[in-house]
Design goal:
Structural class: alpha+beta
Helix content: 25-40%
Radius of gyration: 16 Å
Order of helices and strands: HHHEEEEHEEEE
Largest sheet: 8 strands, antiparallel
Number of strands: 8
Length: 179
């Protein structure tokens, strides 16, 4: 099922882009699509571990920011920031537990932000990627939020949000919640 979702997402994002991108904007769209398909969705669905998600991001030419490169990544690190080779895109991978009501919930989160994309552009990316009503639900009152339809929502949920926090870049955040 995960493979079907990843393949349909990749086809939707790359539909018509059989040859090399003709413009820098198309190249950026291809990069964001690949980040979603090869890093964020497999990580949030636990198809890839924290370490394998970092390795997949490195294959897409992401690295740790210059101010963090001198410090080794802790053996039991639960979060990492990565930046694209041109410095325009940032990727944050994190895992841990949160309180959801009275329950402790294990979460894995992948957040994608850019100096070239605001909340509107990230929302457009989300709409293109998660518009299939068979797999994703969205509320008309919250057009920048998508929830994965699952058989057991009390055990597992996948949420996609465009998050805008004061003083921070808008981010397309994909979070898997495991109860």
């Amino acid at each position: 099922m995960k493979a079907v979702v990843a393949c349909s997402l990749a086809m939707g994002l790359a539909f018509g882009a059989v040859s090399a991108p003709a413009t820098p904007a198309e190249a950026q769209q291809n990069l964001t699509g690949r980040i979603l398909v090869e890093v964020c969705l497999p990580y949030a669905t636990r198809g890839k571990s924290f370490e394998k998600a970092i390795a997949a991001a490195r294959e897409l030419r992401f690295r740790r920011p210059a101010n963090e490169r001198g410090q080794p990544l802790e053996e039991f690190a639960s979060e990492v920031n990565l930046v694209s080779h041109d410095g325009a895109w940032r990727l944050r991978l994190e895992e841990g537990t949160i309180e959801d009501g009275e329950a402790q919930v294990y979460t894995v989160t992948c957040a994608l932000s850019s100096t070239r994309a605001g909340a509107r552009e990230l929302g457009d990316l989300g709409r293109r990627a998660f518009r299939d009503d068979r797999y994703w639900s969205t509320d008309e009152s919250a057009p920048r939020q998508w929830d994965r339809r699952t058989r057991n929502p009390d055990e597992y949920r996948l949420e996609v949000r465009v998050v805008e926090e004061d003083g921070a870049r808008p981010a397309l955040t994909i979070r898997g919640l495991y109860y």
